[in-house]
Design a protein that fits this description.
It is a single chain. A hairpin with a 7-residue loop joins strand 7 and strand 8. This protein is of the alpha+beta class and 217 residues long. The protein has a five-stranded mixed β-sheet with strand order 1-6-7-8-3. The protein has one domain.
């Protein structure tokens, strides 16, 4: 794991590199079951690395998080707070209840701000100042998302190498930059507990990271 660092606020002007998320590349999501698989979070509440944010007029920006694999999506959500510590760790099963796995594809190529290590040099920020930071730094890292959204109107979201699963890419889309219906469900959403195959995948991932899922009390 990269060492957690102190976040650095963005400069007055941000200059991003962009990348393309191809229209045939599946976006994996793990999200609460009261959202549809292709539904954006309205961005009114929360405390994530890059959301909630507001646009230049002070309006909330709807957002949607995802990853390039199921494991990435799960690590960025239900397993996000599992500590980097040796030995067996436990996770309350109630954290998984009500969570589903959805797969969506964009109906067109997406233009994303590139927040991977090479491109971060252009932004003038190190990975441990924006990606590898802890929750107490999120108010600062959200400033980057707001600045990119405001200053880069052609950008439809952001993509970075996941801190939780560095074999995969994580992304966040700006809902006000995508046309209605551009995201299409690639498969029916799977409940992480009641869908046997999905739960098996959760258990396999838990075993890989040394987690024992225990019944809630």
């Amino acid at each position: 794991m990269a060492e957690a660092g102190m976040a650095m606020p963005p400069p007055a002007t941000v200059t991003v590199s962009t990348m393309k998320w191809s229209l045939d590349t599946i976006i994996h999501r793990v999200h609460q079951d009261h959202y549809a698989g292709d539904q954006f979070n309205p961005g009114l509440n929360g405390n994530a690395r890059f959301s909630p944010i507001k646009d230049a007029l002070g309006e909330s920006v709807p957002t949607l998080y995802g990853g390039s694999t199921f494991a990435c999506a799960a690590m960025e959500t239900v397993f996000h707070d599992v500590p980097f510590a040796p030995g067996l760790k436990t996770l309350d099963k109630r954290k998984i209840v009500g969570q589903v796995h959805s797969q969506v594809t964009p109906g067109a190529d997406l233009i994303l701000a590139d927040l991977r290590s090479k491109a971060l040099r252009k932004l003038g920020v190190a990975r441990n100042q924006i990606i590898d930071t802890e929750k107490d730094q999120y108010p600062i890292t959200r400033q980057w998302a707001a600045a990119i959204h405001t200053q880069c109107p052609e950008v439809q979201g952001m993509c970075w190498t996941s801190r939780q699963d560095d074999s995969a890419q994580a992304l966040m889309l700006f809902g006000d930059r995508l046309k209605q219906g551009v995201l299409q469900l690639a498969a029916a959403s799977r409940n992480l507990v009641s869908d046997a195959k999905a739960y098996d995948e959760v258990l396999l991932l838990a075993e890989q990271i040394g987690v024992d899922i225990v019944p809630g009390r």
